[in-house]
UniProtKB/TrEMBL annotation:
SMART domains: Aamy (SM00642). Gene3D superfamilies: Glycosidases, Golgi alpha-mannosidase II, Oligo-1,6-glucosidase, Domain 2. It holds the Pfam family Alpha-amylase. It comes from Buttiauxella brennerae ATCC 51605. It is an enzyme of class 3 (hydrolase). This is Glucan 1,6-alpha-glucosidase. Coiled coil: none annotated. Keywords: Glycosidase, Hydrolase. CDD domains: AmyAc_SI_OligoGlu_DGase.
Length: 546
């Protein structure tokens, strides 16, 4: 496998609205991010995935863009954005811009033009269909945010497609002029010195609308190859495609070296495992280690020699990692450390979502009015109209709603967690008094310092980056363990994924394994022997001596 600089990089995702407010309006902003670059440098990360900061009416918090080449006033100015890029670079940190080109905002000038008349030159930038015979939407395609995926433009009597909110009309990627505009825009961003792109729902751009094929349409990979050739393929950039639909076979198409598409995909198999087949994320299934192990193993194995994995437990659309996969109660600290070790010891590029490094947890607002996320709000109303009870829907929102990840970052224990001096746009999680960056920095044994150490280890030990992945103790119902091996060096990674004390019988062939403990969340382990008494969520990585 050809080595790339970003193979041993660690990405940190910033959700700007919730990261740091510099000017006291309750909304995070670019200057707030600049003020925290030293913190990020200390953590050791190399790349920032910046969720959208472009001009936007904020129907979906910036995933609805009205100008790709301007900055939302509430986040700052283009000059500040350029300062952020430069200041980050001085710290060896590169910025991945969020590229949202499956759709625009309904306030984008292209859409405003398109609405003017059927023969406007921009009409064909979007996807229009005549009503069905009864005057209703052309077909029964549903939006991810609830309701029909078609909205009526009364003036022309035609419907336009929107896979997300009706304020996010889908772009028509069958129109080459759309490609030209998007490619030119991407090149202007690359010229500003960014490190690459995170590509929002990229698997949807090849859609075949009349067949109702949205993900993985027949032109998808062609479109990505064209984009690669016209833009980022000309330099050494990082590209990560969000692809909810991706199978391992698809991932090889996206990220195979000779394919000239993307660096890696961001797929959600390990997340979707715990969603209901019908009600999806709104009815979550309890965490179950066996299927989690099977999914991770599947992806580690499938991309062992070709392609490259993104590794993540959380992002701005998902619940908090420790709440989902660990324990947000008594074992919050050891379980968050275990999750950090497990993440960074897999093969791929790790992504840390803001606040994960201090073990931030899900939030449980009692009333729907405290929520801000368009998806939770819309689906609350849709599902209640379908007969689901308030309590049941709130359970779903508490478990999987996107605002879990979007409450403000906890910087210290002052009012509003040091995020802002006024009422924030969304309430802070009340547990900020215990869980915050200032406290974590002051505590040598904190989750934060564990992350910092783990990020540093990836720079130091090639076995963590390039080592083969081989599961061990495969059928164990509570332990997830594997060995990474490279050039005769072996690293055992062993995690108790439960809150129980376990007695682990070590298989004979592993009993004489001993060496250097690179990281642990209890006392370091330097040998295995016949039996191990594992603490709740105990986890360690042992570099086995030759
Ligand atoms: C992606 C984003 C999500 C957004 C959606 C529509 O899934 O991560 O936040 O709502 O695309 O742009
Ligand atoms: Ca602000």
């Amino acid at each position: 496998m050809e080595k790339k600089w970003w193979h041993n990089a660690v990405v940190y995702q910033i959700y700007p609205r919730s990261f740091m407010d510099s000017n006291g309006d309750g909304i995070g902003d670019i200057n707030g991010i600049i003020s925290k670059l030293d913190y990020l440098q200390q953590l050791g990360i190399n790349l920032i995935w910046l969720s959208p900061v472009y001009r936007s009416p904020m129907d979906d918090n910036g995933y609805d863009i009205s100008d790709y080449e301007d900055i939302a006033a509430e986040f700052g100015t283009m000059a500040q954005m350029e300062t952020l890029i430069a200041q980050a670079k001085q710290r060896d940190i590169h910025i991945l811009m969020d590229l949202v080109v499956n759709h625009t905002s309904d306030e984008h000038p292209w859409f405003i033009e398109a609405l003017k008349s059927k023969d406007n030159p921009y009409r064909d930038f979007y996807i229009w269909r005549k009503p069905a015979a009864d005057g209703g939407p052309p077909n029964d395609f549903r939006s991810y945010f609830g309701g029909s995926g078609w909205a009526l433009d009364e003036a022309s009597g035609e419907y336009y497609l929107h896979q997300f909110s009706k304020r996010q009309p889908d772009l028509n990627w069958d129109n080459p002029r759309v490609h030209d505009e998007v490619h030119a825009m991407m090149n202007r961003w690359l010229a500003k010195g960014i490190g690459g792109f995170r590509m929002d729902v990229i698997d949807l751009i090849g859609k075949e609308v009349d067949k109702q094929i949205m993900a993985n349409g027949k032109n998808l990979h062609l479109l990505i190859r064209q984009m690669n050739r016209a833009t980022f393929g000309k330099g050494d950039y990082v590209t990560v495609g969000e692809a909810w639909s991706a199978t391992p076979e698809d991932a090889l198409l996206y990220s195979g070296a000779e394919r000239e598409e993307l660096s890696m995909v961001f797929q959600f198999d390990h997340i979707k495992q715990f969603w209901d087949e019908h009600a999806g994320k709104w009815c979550s299934k309890p965490f179950e280690l066996a299927s989690f192990k099977a999914v991770i193993e599947k992806w580690q194995t499938a991309l062992a020699h070709q392609g490259w994995n993104s590794l993540f437990w959380s992002n701005h659309d998902l619940p908090r990692a420790v709440s989902k996969f660990g324990d947000e109660g008594a074992f919050r600290v050891p379980s968050a450390k275990m999750l950090a070790t497990a993440l960074h010891c897999l093969k791929g590029t790790p992504y840390i979502y803001q606040g994960e490094e201090i073990g931030m947890t899900n939030v449980r607002f009692e009333t729907i009015d405290d929520y801000r996320d368009i998806e939770s709000l819309n689906l609350y109303h849709v599902r209640l109209a379908e007969g689901v009870s308030h309590d049941e829907m709130m359970l779903g929102i508490h478990a999987n709603g996107r605002d879990n990840a979007r409450t403000p970052m906890h910087w210290d224990d002052s009012p509003n967690a040091g995020f802002t001096t006024v009422k924030p746009w969304i309430a802070v999680n009340p547990n900020y008094r215990e869980i915050n960056v200032a406290a974590a920095l002051a505590e040598p044994d904190s989750i934060l310092w564990h992350y910092q150490k783990m990020v540093a280890l990836r720079k130091q030990y090639p076995v963590l980056v390039y080592g083969d992945f081989q599961p061990v103790l495969r059928d164990h119902p509570q332990v997830f363990a594997w060995v990474r091996s490279l050039d005769g060096e072996r690293l055992l990674v062993l995690n108790n994924f439960t809150a129980e004390h376990l007695t682990l019988d070590i298989p004979p062939e592993m009993q004489n394994w001993h060496g250097e403990c690179l990281i642990s969340n209890y006392a370091p382990r330097d040998q295995l022997a016949v039996r191990l008494e594992l603490q709740p969520y105990e986890s360690f990585a042992l570099l086995i001596g030759r």
